[in-house]
Amino acid sequence: MFPAASEHIVTATAPRDAIVDPGPAPAQFDAPGGECEHVGAATYRNLTGCDPADASIDDDDDFDKHVLASILAVAAMEGDAVARRAGLEGQDLAALVAQWFPAMRDAAAKWCEPGPSACEQAGGVEDEEIGMVRDLLLAHRSTDGDAGRWLAAMVARRSMEPNHLWEDLGLRDRSELTRLLARHFAPIAARNTKNMRWKRFFYRTLCEDDGLVMCSAPVCSRCGDFNLCFGDESGMSRLAYRRRILALKVSSFFDADAASNPFTS
Which of 191, 164, 187 is closest to 177 using CA atoms? Predict the structure, then answer.
């Protein structure tokens, strides 16, 4: 029923180096002090005033701000229109920034330029999947206000990316994703009693709600795909990972420059 979904899930189990290829040096900003900084971390800091690692999320509002900033930061890393990569229409992203990050309203205007919607630019089966996951989450909202509606669209769009869902939301670990879903989509989160991977769980729920059986094994413990559904989801966040790659490249550049300079020896 969801051919593309199964491809995304299988890809998420591949070795990390095969999923997150450092590739060429990422986009950079010239930060104060002359340092080069990766655009994702810089975007997060511009939105919130702090580094992702230093974010305080004890309060629910602070947690929501952290989640929204993380999704926008990771979308900004990907070199495409931020609204589309984040899963929002331009007007919704403009409203989100105005409400949560008003100081960035003018700077973020280019993120909200008119263009194809997240679903329109995805096309085909993926278009359907985004809509179905979004509607599943909307049907199980547990908070009022626009944040839950925006997050349903953002989580659905980011579910189409190949890494663990918490990584493609720009979050620091899986526990933040679990908290996000328990806070804003409590009824659906409560159904994941066996701690299944969230993307896999969404698709299994969609199948079950349609009266279909996703798995042929009578119980999960006897299924050959057990690790696809319940495997480890630990790792370094995408923002931290890309910052580390950038730091290594900058360090290598200066090491090479020093080695070739006779006056430094």
Answer: 164
Query: Which residues, listed in sequence order, are joined to residue 36 by a DSSP beta bridge?
Result: 30
DSSP3 helix / strand / coil % (the chain, rounded to 5): 65, 0, 35
Q: Is residue 264 part of a domain?
A: no
Strand partners, 37: 29
Q: Residue 261 domain-assigned?
A: no
For residue 223, give both structure tokens: 């299924």
Q: How far apart are CA 1 and CA 6, in angstroms?
A: 9
Strand, helix or coil at 7? helix
Per-residue pLDDT of the chain (265 residues; tens, 9 = 90+): 444 443 333 333 333 333 333 333 334 433 443 333 588 999 999 999 999 999 999 999 999 999 999 999 999 998 778 999 999 999 999 999 999 999 999 888 888 876 555 445 544 455 788 999 999 999 999 999 999 999 999 999 999 998 999 999 999 999 999 999 999 999 999 999 888 889 888 988 888 776 555 555 444 444 445 454 445 555 555 444 444 544 444 444 444 454 555 544 4
Q: Pull the structure tokens for residue 121.
A: 């630019």
Burial class for 171, CB neighbours closer than 10 Å (0-12, 13-18, 19+): buried
**What is the rounded distance in angstroms from the CA atom of residue 134 to the CA atom of residue 23?**
31
User: Would you state the torsion angle of the CA atoms of residues 138, 167, 125, 118, taken in this order, to the nearest 10 degrees?
Assistant: 70
Give the separation between CA 39 and CA 31, rounded to whole angstroms.
10
Q: Is residue 260 part of a domain?
A: no
Range of the domain at 56: 3-9+20-249
- The residues near 219 (Cβ < 8 Å, ≥ 6 apart) are none
Domain tally, the chain: 1
